[in-house]
Every structure is written in C-alpha cells, then in structure tokens.
C-alpha cells in the first residue's frame, strides 16, 4: 500500500482537522509536550494509532525536514480535477481564482505558494505532471498545513488546460519581467482569473507565455530585477485579493 509522510506540528494538525486519512502518528520521546498534546488528543478521538519512538527514527523517515518530533503516516495525497476547482468557485458564488505553475520545481516554493493561496482565497493550484514539484512532506511542512485545504490539480498539458479555462471565461494573466503592464491597479483581477507563475530560473515557457491574455510585471527599484518565484506569486495573489475586496 502506498503511503505518504506528513511532518511537523502545523502540517499534522491541519491534516487531522481536514479529515485526511491518517494511518499512524509517531511522536518522538523528546518532543515538547505542549506541541504534541493537542495532536495526541485529536488522534485518540479519531482512533488513530500513536507510537512514541526515538527521534532518530523520525530523522530517518523524513530526512532534512524540521519535523518537531511529530510525523504522520497518511494515505497518498488526493489531487483534484480542474473541474472540481471551478465547481468549488461556482458553489461559493465567486469568480474563479486559480494559480497555474509552469514547472515550479522547488518543493519549498510550492509549499509557500500554497500557503499564500490559502490566505488570499485562491480556489486551487494547477501544476503539470512533468518537471514540477509534487505535494510531498516538504511541501506540506513549508505550507504550514495549507496543502490540506488548497486543491492541487496535476495536468498532462498546461497549454491545453489554459485553452479549457479560456473557454470557461477565465482570463489568463502571466507574470513576466519583460511585460509592459504593471501588476497594480490594472483592473484585470476582479473577474475570473488564472495567474501563471513561471519556472524559478527560466520563467514561463514560450508557448505558455503566448497563450496568456495579458502579461504583467512587478515594479523593481533595486539592482536585482527579479524576485523568488514564491515571493513574486505572493505579491500578485495579494493584489488579486485587494482588487476583489475593493470591488465588493
């Protein structure tokens, strides 16, 4: 049976709250009681097996992740369908607000983007199946548990997905340092919108760039002309939220 690991206090807590299927939770003998007590109480309520183990076992299970002495063994992450994300927006009577990631490879960037997507009310994130970070323990930890709430769809062809979104009336906005139009106050974010964030090093691919309805850029005043992908995504997501709240 396939399994996935969820590590860290926030990630495990949100996985429990969201109803994710968890098979077992390991708690390190040295873990701080005030961190683990609420998790143990909730796990017992749900009838989940809890095992106290040596911290080194957790270090080996999720190498390189700050697990805070808490690791859960969960059912594989359930990816959403694009239709589910659009339907979720419709059921809330809201214009779709989607994030499309064109080959974001760093799981820390994906986790940070999911966290901001949750904070700004995005309905979901769409990633390609190839050359893209998947939802892993690192992503879950970096997202502070937001990975349990923001639906992520994996698609075979991002360009075709953009065409489908356009047919649904979604305006596709790409972020590009060479764009002429600025991101702030341009009026493109109040309707149905899909925000495209490019690869950490190359930016958006040529085909994806050409398929965007409009390209926008962030103003730059310093010597460095680009931001980390997840930081840039966060700034633009908050501009979407600001524009929408102003319109209400």
UniProtKB/TrEMBL annotation:
It holds the Pfam family SpoU_methylase. Belongs to the class IV-like SAM-binding methyltransferase superfamily. RNA methyltransferase TrmH family. Keywords: Methyltransferase, Transferase. The lineage of its organism: Bacteria, Bacillati, Bacillota, Bacilli, Bacillales. The keyword ATP-binding does not apply. The keyword Plastid does not apply. This is 23S rRNA (Guanosine(2251)-2'-O)-methyltransferase RlmB. Residues 5-80 form the RNA 2-O ribose methyltransferase substrate binding domain. It comes from the Bacteria.
